[in-house]
């Protein structure tokens, strides 16, 4: 009987190389999160956590309940902190960061060799005249040659994932701040609408009594009644809008169950004495905007991928098969053995596919990334200028309503009251002037809201975190019944 065995000794080669690279940094459960937390803390001045176990979840929930219990009504800074601790979408974004870390960790590991073992024989199972046992291990040596480039690409993508997680954090903070402003402005408008409703009810009641005495025509009575009816409809719509605005804030903070009993203030903070000058806001945005940094890393990763494609243009699959072949002969109870080392190389010959198409795709991908980066730089500068212009202009508009329009309307009402007391004007002229004053106050509240929204959009314009969701023209429809000094 003659037996032939071919075994592989090359397995030790890739295993020895794999010991040269460690994935310790990527293998940590919170890999990359410290950088995200530090970067966002400089902008928001708030803490954020990555919840990965029950203990961390209980700790975050206890912290949220504590913040809700000791802050009544809920102020904007506390609302932002709760959202950063409790927003589930943000936790999902952090999971994406962990996924990228796992990919980077995987890139540090070599491809496992493929082991194949087989037998061939001639003859019957009872008596085989010839038998061969073969074993082979293959490994992709092209993957070994391009290992460093693959690791560099994976690391770039990991750093990009860190920035994406930071952008998501800033976006949640900015959205929560805007939602709080919208909710509070809605409740403040509701309070003003209630004053208007009280005035309208008084006018309608007076018109009805005068009509009973014949001192007021039916057409004039109808005008007063229809005003009350329309105002009631607007008030009902405003109540709905205010409740929906609060629900948006609730969603961003991730609250449910007993935590829904929180209240927000009944009015926005007063306007500041002056605005902050940001003459260098464009350069600040170019230096700090995270979206721009992500685009730069995308260009870097694309450039590295282009280099890898160029290096493997002609050879895409290159495998080495190596080992020993042992021949053993048994004749007259005497065994003869002969061992021979073998090395085989397998690769595709680029006769038909020379890799030009892959090179073209890589070149286009690089140009696409370069142009997207240039476009992002233009947009970032423009968004920064627009944000500051909105901030300055809305401050001037809000201050104009506060300092000019509302005082003049108040003066008109006071003069109307004096003429009414002197029996120079009638009751309905007084009520009309009072309603006009309330309308001016509503416009003033909306102008103040637009200023605080513009102020909230300054940080996203500089650091990233989403485009503005509101403008001076976009009105947050106000309404809902005032809950007194405690809020809603």
Order of helices and strands, N to C?
EHHHHHHEEHHHHHEEHHH
**Strand segment tally:** 5
**Percentage of residues in DSSP E strands:** 5-15%
Put simply, the count of helices is 14
On the 0 to 100 scale, the average pLDDT is 74
The largest sheet, given as strand count, sense and whether it forms a barrel, is: 5 strands, mixed
In the predicted model, the low-confidence regions spanning at least 5 consecutive residues are: 1-24, 127-131, 311-318, 468-486
Fraction of residues in H or I helices: 55-70%
Query: Could you say which overall geometry the principal axes of the C-alpha atoms support?
Result: elongated
Given helix and strand content, the structural type is: alpha+beta
Gap between N and C termini: 94 Å
Radius of gyration (CA) equals 37 Å
Explain the overall architecture.
- This protein has 14 helices and five strands.
- The chain has helices at residues 12-18, 24-27, 33-44, 54-70, 76-86, 88-107, 141-145, 147-213, 218-253, 281-288, 290-311, 356-421, 427-456, 458-463; strands at residues 2-7, 114-123, 128-140, 318-331, 334-347.
- Strands 1, 2, 3, 4 and 5 form a five-stranded mixed sheet that branches.
- A hairpin with a 2-residue loop joins strand 4 (318-331) and strand 5 (334-347).
- Residues 1-24, 127-131, 311-318 and 468-486 have low confidence and may be disordered.
């Amino acid at each position: 009987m003659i037996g032939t065995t071919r075994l592989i000794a090359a397995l030790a080669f890739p295993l020895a190389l794999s010991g040269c690279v460690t994935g310790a940094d990527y293998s940590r459960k919170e890999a990359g999160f410290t950088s995200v937390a530090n970067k966002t803390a400089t902008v928001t001045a708030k803490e954020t956590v990555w919840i990965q176990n029950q203990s961390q979840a209980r700790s975050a929930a206890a912290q949220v309940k504590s913040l809700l219990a000791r802050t009544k009504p809920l102020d904007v800074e506390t609302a932002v902190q709760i959202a950063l601790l409790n927003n589930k979408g943000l936790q999902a974004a952090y999971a994406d960061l962990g996924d990228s870390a796992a990919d980077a960790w995987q890139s540090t590991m070599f491809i496992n060799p493929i082991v194949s073992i087989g037998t061939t024989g001639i003859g019957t199972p009872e008596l085989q005249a010839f038998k061969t046992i073969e074993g082979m291990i293959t490994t992709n040596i092209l993957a070994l040659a391009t290992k460093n480039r693959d690791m560099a690409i994976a690391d770039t993508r990991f750093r990009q994932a860190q920035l994406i997680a930071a952008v998501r954090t800033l976006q949640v903070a900015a959205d929560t701040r805007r939602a709080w402003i919208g909710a509070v402005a809605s409740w403040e408008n509701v309070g003003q609408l209630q004053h208007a409703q009280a005035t309208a009810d008084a006018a309608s009641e007076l018109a009805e009594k005068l009509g009973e005495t014949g001192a007021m025509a039916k057409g004039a009575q109808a005008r007063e009644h229809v005003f009350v009816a329309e105002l009631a409809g607007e008030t009902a719509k405003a109540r709905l809008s205010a409740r929906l605005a609060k629900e948006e804030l609730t969603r961003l903070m991730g609250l449910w169950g007993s935590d829904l009993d929180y209240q927000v203030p009944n009015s926005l903070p007063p306007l500041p004495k002056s605005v902050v000058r940001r003459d260098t806001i464009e350069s600040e945005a170019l230096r700090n905007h995270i979206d721009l940094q992500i685009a730069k890393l995308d260009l870097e990763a694309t450039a590295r991928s282009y280099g890898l494609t160029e290096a493997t243009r002609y050879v895409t699959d290159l495998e080495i098969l190596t080992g020993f072949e042992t021949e053993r002969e048994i004749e007259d109870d005497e065994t003869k053995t002969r061992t021979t080392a073998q090395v085989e190389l397998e690769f595709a010959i680029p006769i038909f596919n020379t890799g030009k198409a892959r090179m073209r795709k890589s070149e286009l991908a690089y140009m696409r990334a370069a142009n997207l980066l240039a476009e992002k730089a233009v947009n970032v500068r423009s968004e920064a200028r627009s944000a500051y212009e909105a901030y300055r202009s809305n401050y001037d508009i809000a201050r104009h309503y506060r300092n000019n329009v509302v005082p003049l309307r108040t003066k008109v009402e006071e003069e109307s009251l004096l003429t009414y007391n002197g029996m120079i004007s009638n009751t309905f002229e007084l009520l009309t002037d009072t309603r006009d004053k309330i309308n001016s106050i509503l416009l003033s509240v909306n102008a103040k809201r637009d200023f605080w929204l513009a102020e909230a959009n300054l940080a996203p314009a500089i650091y990233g975190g989403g485009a503005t969701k509101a403008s001076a023209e976009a009105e947050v429809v106000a309404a809902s019944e005032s809950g007194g000094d405690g809020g809603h």
